[in-house]
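Q: Got a minute? One more chain.
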Amino acid sequence: QVQLMESGGGLVQAGGSLRLSCAASGRGINISTMGWYRQAPGKQRELVAIITSSGSTKHMDPVKGRFTISKNNAQNTVYLQMNSLKPEDTAVYYCHMYEVTSWGQGTQVTVSS
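A: Always. Here it is, folded:
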């Protein structure tokens, strides 16, 4: 059974930084496509960034140049480095493994103005 555990969320002022982590178990991220999504109150869940098994990445326009997705295959962990945070980045952030459609429980990120 695949489990994903996010951590690293919190409260930060605008312009600040956070690094989210997603620890996977039950399947290697080295053979998986991993994504970070977020869901703000009253809004649909949206894709933030993807990293493939080979390490190719794609970042969505709202976060391009500010957020960076990366991974450590040896630790089976995916990261999301978030810089220059804005109040509109406030959301619950979720980790996703595409091959088995697994989701983590989410971690809250709150950016104050």
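A: The two ends are 40 Å apart (CA to CA).
Q: Perfect, thanks.
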